[in-house]
Amino acid sequence: MKRNHICFWAFILLLSSSFAGYSQTKIATFYHTAEDPLQAQNKPIPADSKVKGISTAILSRGSGVKYANNSTYSYVATFSQGESKEQAYTNGSYFQFSVTAEEGKSLKMSSLNARLRTASELSVTKYRWKYSVDNTIENSFKEIGDADQNIGFTHTQGEDVKTDLSNIAELQSIAPGKTVYFRLYAWGAKGSHSKAGFGFGKSNVAKREVLALVGEVKSK
After folding, report:
1. First to last CA, the chain
2. CA-CA-CA-CA torsion for 54, 51, 158, 95, nearest 10 degrees?
3. 150-209 residue pLDDT tens
4. CB proximity list for 173: less than 8 A, separation 6 or greater
5. Could you give the CA distance from residue 163 to residue 169 in angstroms, rounded to a whole number?
6. Listed residue (192, 188, 155, 190) closest to 77, CA to CA
7. What is the Cβ-side half-sphere exposure of residue 28, based on CA atoms within 13 angstroms?
8. What's the rounded Cα separation, in Å, for the pair 126 and 189?
9. 3, 49, 119, 145: least surrounded by Cβ within 10 Å?
10. What is the 8-class DSSP label of residue 81?
11. CA distance 210 to 115
12. Which of 63, 117, 127, 125 is nearest to 93 (CA)?
């Protein structure tokens, strides 16, 4: 009897969540395939998959970094040698991920899941995610988390990093039509040639996810 009682209330909770219009899922995902490798992408790219209710989801490079194709099936760039955090912020040394909901849909964001990869010991050593709502001016971006993050030489596999967004009040109710911009700034590179790249990726495994935004889409 007790077990049936628990199951009943679990069903009610699930049902009420559905009626509320929420669906916790990967809102937008980027991955690589043999037919469309990330390595070859020297321009902004759309998400490989996105849920219904998302208008656009785009990954691009900032003006302060250079396209690099040194890492197989990876979306990478080279960053300026010896650049500091402050210089990275000023010079546009970042990757940008933007997402926009359709009219009539609002967003609630939970996490950013990324597979980050450095090409060598000469690559960047630190990074920080920032975000802005409907504004791309640098001073409108706010840092995510309590501290800068360290990264070493990841070899070909990269490393999975989950960034929590659930405690950022501003990202829990994004109005329809608004665009959220995420920027991954990086600095501390000891070299700026093609073998010192940094970005999203892994070795050539078909449909390996390299970046995903997890959250909810709700009808207004």
Report:
1. 39
2. -10
3. 999 987 778 899 999 999 999 999 999 999 999 999 999 998 877 788 999 876 655 678
4. 106, 107, 108
5. 15
6. 192
7. 21
8. 9
9. 3
10. B
11. 5
12. 63
Q: Give the position of tokens 């040194």.
A: 70
pLDDT digits over 49-87, tens only?
A: 999 999 999 999 999 999 887 666 788 899 999 999 999
Structure tokens at 133: 């709502």
Which pair of structure tokens corresponds to residue 180? 């959220």
Residue 206 tokens, joined: 């078909």
- Name the phi and psi angles at 50, rounded to 5: -150, 150
User: Which DSSP state fits 139?
Assistant: G
Question: Cα(120)–Cα(60) distance, rounded to whole angstroms?
Answer: 22
Long-range own/partner contacts, residues 204-208 (CB < 8 A, 24 or more apart): 204/32, 204/34, 204/37, 204/72, 204/73, 205/73, 206/33, 206/34, 207/31, 207/32, 207/33, 208/31, 208/32, 208/73, 208/115
Cα–Cα distance for residue pair 109/107, rounded to 1 Å: 6
What CA–CA distance (Å, rounded) separates 13 from 10?
Answer: 5
Q: What is the pTM of this model?
A: 0.86
The tokens for 189 are: 């590179």
